[in-house]
Q: What sequence folds into this?
């Protein structure tokens, strides 16, 4: 099962995904915990170029192609093999980040981005996507307070991050069966409890439909 976490800056995705992975492992699941951009050696090299705050001259098309290149490598080298082995893949950001940041944020054509993503991933779509939602200004402030390293996209104006957040809501509205909205502007342990519950429910539903398929055969 392929699960992704998405959200604007400062939503706490990275600090939520690690305890989720531990929780699932304790329950006996074989989990691959990974992230984008990156997740492979080649992807991490691309990530360094993308996040370098000195790269202010980067063209939006270059940017989106680099995210797609990192993703193509990640899907081929790690995600597809893990799914084929029956593992749970937990990924901190995936193609929806491209739609939200480069599409809604930067204003690149959404249909172009869909085609690019389909090409890069061979059409691999998550089974479940958790949107850790937070007001853009609150999220940015939270990142600063926590003293997290700021990347090239963090330095964009507030209006950019507001478009990103609105973009996530539009993506969710277009495909409600895949997405679950989680209010990330709450204490981390409350958010974690909801994240676990949503994932366990989805795993149980999947098991039930697999049992039913066996029964129907
Ligand atoms: P993060 O490690 O804090 O999640 O940072 C990743 C940054 O990269 C974040 O600012 C969002 C951005 N990003 C995109 O703009 N497009 C993408 O496709 C991905 C995966 C990330």
A:
């Amino acid at each position: 099962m392929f699960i992704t976490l998405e959200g604007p800056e400062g939503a706490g995705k990275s600090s939520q995904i690690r305890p989720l992975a531990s929780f699932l492992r304790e329950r006996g699941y074989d989990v691959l915990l990974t992230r984008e951009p990156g997740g492979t050696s080649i992807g991490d090299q691309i990530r360094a170029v993308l996040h370098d705050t000195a790269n202010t001259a980067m063209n939006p098309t270059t940017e989106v192609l680099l995210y797609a290149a990192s993703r193509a490598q990640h899907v081929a080298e790690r995600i597809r093999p893990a799914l084929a082995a029956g593992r749970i893949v937990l990924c901190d950001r995936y193609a929806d980040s491209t739609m939200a940041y480069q599409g809604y944020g930067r204003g690149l054509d959404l249909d172009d981005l869909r085609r690019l993503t389909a090409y890069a991933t061979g059409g691999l779509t998550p089974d479940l996507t958790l949107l850790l939602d937070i007001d853009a200004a609150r999220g940015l402030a939270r990142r600063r307070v926590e003293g997290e390293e700021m990347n090239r996209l963090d330095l964009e104006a507030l209006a950019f991050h507001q478009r990103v957040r609105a973009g996530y809501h539009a993506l969710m509205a277009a495909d409600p069966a895949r997405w679950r909205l989680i209010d990330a502007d709450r204490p981390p342990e409350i958010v974690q409890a909801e994240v676990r519950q949503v994932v366990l429910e989805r795993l149980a539903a999947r098991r039930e439909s697999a049992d039913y398929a066996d029964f129907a055969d």
Observations:
- The first strand starts at residue 2 and ends at 6.
